[in-house]
């Protein structure tokens, strides 16, 4: 079955994060790994739109760091689906930082593949019925 290509949409806001001192190195710029962790979360947020399953990151196909992020900046992670498979989605994530002077800068772009899996970690079609149970805190 060939992969489906969804209609091209504008990326949607997946996360908005204030960069704190704990996120930075000794020069006051945010560690790349912190940005990657948020990209991974944004990928999950986008993948989850296609089915309420366990989603895992199968690959990070590309990451382009274009400019540094500094402590105190607000960073937005926008995501969109660019390819649909049977059990996977390819997600593009664009990362913009609101600088301390109020201007915006594109700081990172990434592409990753997320795969829907069952409780045993085996890939499943994301069009299948929901496989996760969501319990409120304190529920047995």
Structure description:
This protein is mainly beta. The chain has a single domain (12-117), classed as Thiol Ester Dehydrase, Chain A (Roll). It is 12% helix and 39% strand. The protein has one helix and five strands, in the order βαββββ. It has one helix at residues 32-48; strands at 12-18, 54-65, 74-84, 88-98, 104-117. A five-stranded antiparallel beta sheet has the order 1-3-4-5-2, with helices on one face. Strand 3 and strand 4 (88-98) form a beta hairpin. The radius of gyration is 17 Å and the shape is elongated.
Briefly note the CATH topology name. Answer: Thiol Ester Dehydrase, Chain A
SS class: mainly beta
Distance between the termini: 41 Å
Extract low-pLDDT stretches. Answer: none
Taking the sheet with the most strands, its summary is: 5 strands, antiparallel
Number of helices: 1
Helix content: 10-25%
Order of helices and strands: EHEEEE
- Provide the domain count: 1
Could you tell me the radius of gyration in angstroms? Answer: 17 Å
CATH architecture: Roll
Give the strand line-up of the largest sheet.
1-3-4-5-2
| Overall pLDDT score | 90
Q: How many DSSP E strands?
A: 5
Indicate the CATH class. Answer: Alpha Beta
SSE order and pairing:
Elements: E1 12-18, H1 32-48, E2 54-65, E3 74-84, E4 88-98, E5 104-117
Antiparallel strand pairs: 1-3, 2-5, 3-4, 4-5
């Amino acid at each position: 079955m060939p992969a489906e290509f969804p209609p091209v949409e504008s990326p949607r806001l997946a996360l908005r994060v204030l960069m704190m001192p704990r996120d930075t190195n000794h020069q006051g710029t945010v560690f790349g790994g912190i940005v990657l962790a948020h990209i991974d979360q944004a990928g999950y947020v986008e993948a989850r739109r296609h089915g309420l399953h366990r989603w895992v990151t199968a690959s990070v196909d590309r990451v382009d760091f274009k400019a540094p992020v500094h402590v105190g900046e607000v960073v937005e992670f926008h995501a969109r689906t660019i390819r649909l498979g049977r059990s996977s989605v390819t997600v593009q994530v664009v990362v913009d930082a609101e600088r301390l002077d109020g201007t915006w800068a594109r700081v990172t772009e990434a592409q990753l593949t997320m795969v829907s899996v069952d409780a045993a970690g085996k890939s499943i079609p994301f069009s299948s019925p929901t496989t996760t149970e969501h319990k409120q805190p304190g529920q047995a």
